[in-house]
């Protein structure tokens, strides 16, 4: 099960890496000779990703909502491939619903997946990074944390928490060699965003009209930013939230 340590330069873990932004990030890592472990729930998507990415990639089917099993998961990855150099917390869920109709359970479910699971996985991976006093953790936020977007209260709360956690983690971990940063994607053309926008021309026009660059991004735009923050080129950068959004967060 061990990969040849003389081949890849580093080891990365990418959650939600079998599709969308996560796949683009994994692809960028693999292309740059970083052995990448993709964690996801959909076995069919994981199989397709493995086929596309080849020998420099391993996939693990796992539901990050199972907090109690996360320590064993990280131990398994470490035993098989070595301690991670990079962790990208990309997995997340969203739900569009009128504010007053969101149940406590629905709110908790999104916080559980998008915040608590990110914390638990980061803690376990960081323990191994601390042992070697080096590592880079990159969280993925959203425009929802920059300004109000209708009908996504739980998602907005979760992504605002991610940005606060990024700063807190950076202060706790950076003195011991681990950099922690966050990328806040704007409107990126993925299957998920297509579902949200294609049937809603008004919403799509609004997105484009307040994006100074006048277009949506592509998954590779996010992958490039994540790769930069993970790399030694960003060795003096920690605790930042980098919007990759064509200017959307400052647009009017």
UniProtKB/TrEMBL annotation:
Question: Could you cite one Gene Ontology molecular function of this protein?
Answer: oxidoreductase activity, acting on the CH-OH group of donors, NAD or NADP as acceptor
The protein's matches in CDD domains, at most eight in alphabetical order, are given as:
SDR_c
Q: Which SUPFAM superfamilies match?
A: NAD(P)-binding Rossmann-fold domains (SSF51735)
Q: Which residues form a coiled coil?
A: none
Q: Which InterPro entries match?
A: NAD(P)-bd_dom_sf, Sc_DH/Rdtase_CS, SDR_fam
UniProt record similarity statement: Belongs to the short-chain dehydrogenases/reductases (SDR) family.
Name of the molecule in the record: NAD(P)-dependent dehydrogenase (Short-subunit alcohol dehydrogenase family)
């Amino acid at each position: 099960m061990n990969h040849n340590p003389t081949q890849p330069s580093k080891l990365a873990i990418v959650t939600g890496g079998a599709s969308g932004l996560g796949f683009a990030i994994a692809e960028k890592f693999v292309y740059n000779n970083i052995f990448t472990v993709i964690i996801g729930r959909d076995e069919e998507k994981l199989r397709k990703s493995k086929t596309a990415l080849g020998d420099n990639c391993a996939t693990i089917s796992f539901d990050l909502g199972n907090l109690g099993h996360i320590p064993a998961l990280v131990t398994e990855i470490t035993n098989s491939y070595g301690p991670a150099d990079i962790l990208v917390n990309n997995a997340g869920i969203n739900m569009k619903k009128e504010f007053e109709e969101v149940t406590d359970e629905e709110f908790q479910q999104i916080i559980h997946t998008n915040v608590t699971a990110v914390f638990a996985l980061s803690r376990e991976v960081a323990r191994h990074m601390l042992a070697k006093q080096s590592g880079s953790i990159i969280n993925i936020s959203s425009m929802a944390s920059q300004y109000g977007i209708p009908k996504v209260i739980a998602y907005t709360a979760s992504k605002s928490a991610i940005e606060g956690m990024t700063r807190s983690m950076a202060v706790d971990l950076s003195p011991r060699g681990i950099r922690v940063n966050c990328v806040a994607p704007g409107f990126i053309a993925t299957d998920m965003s297509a579902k949200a926008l294609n049937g809603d021309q008004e919403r799509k026009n609004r997105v484009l009209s307040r994006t100074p660059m006048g277009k949506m991004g592509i998954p590779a735009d996010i992958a490039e930013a994540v790769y930069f923050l993970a790399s030694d080129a960003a060795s003096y950068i920690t605790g930042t939230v980098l919007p990759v959004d064509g200017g959307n967060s400052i647009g009017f």
